[in-house]
């Protein structure tokens, strides 16, 4: 495996370039750090940031999982006969 492959394997698996993945991942890291800060302050001062940390987490979840925009790949996914049988059986 080449060094280029190491840097591109995961971003390619989520249909992103290395730079697109770096931007998305660092954005999540920034907001997770803000949520962590709010949670620590809330632990000491329970009347502060009552819903801020959980609100950030819910927005990140919606962005990453619920409303993820996936770029279409140029090559269709190929499945084996067994995979097609499992899919048609609802497994």
Question: Descriptors for this entry?
Answer:
single chain; 91 residues; mainly alpha
Uncertain stretches: none
Number of strands: 0
Q: How far apart are the first and last residues' alpha carbons, in Å?
A: 34 Å
Mean pLDDT: 85
Please give the radius of gyration in angstroms.
19 Å
Return the structural class: mainly alpha
Count of the domains = 1
Count the DSSP helices.
4
**SSE pattern, N- to C-terminal:** HHHH
Give an overview in words.
67% of the residues lie in helices and 0% in strands. It is mainly α. The chain has one domain. Helix 2 runs antiparallel to helix 3 (52-66). The two termini are 34 Å apart.
Topology:
Blueprint: H1 3-13, H2 18-44, H3 52-66, H4 81-88
Helix pairs in contact: 2-3
Summarize this structure briefly.
This protein has helices spanning 3-13, 18-44, 52-66, 81-88. It is mainly alpha-helical.
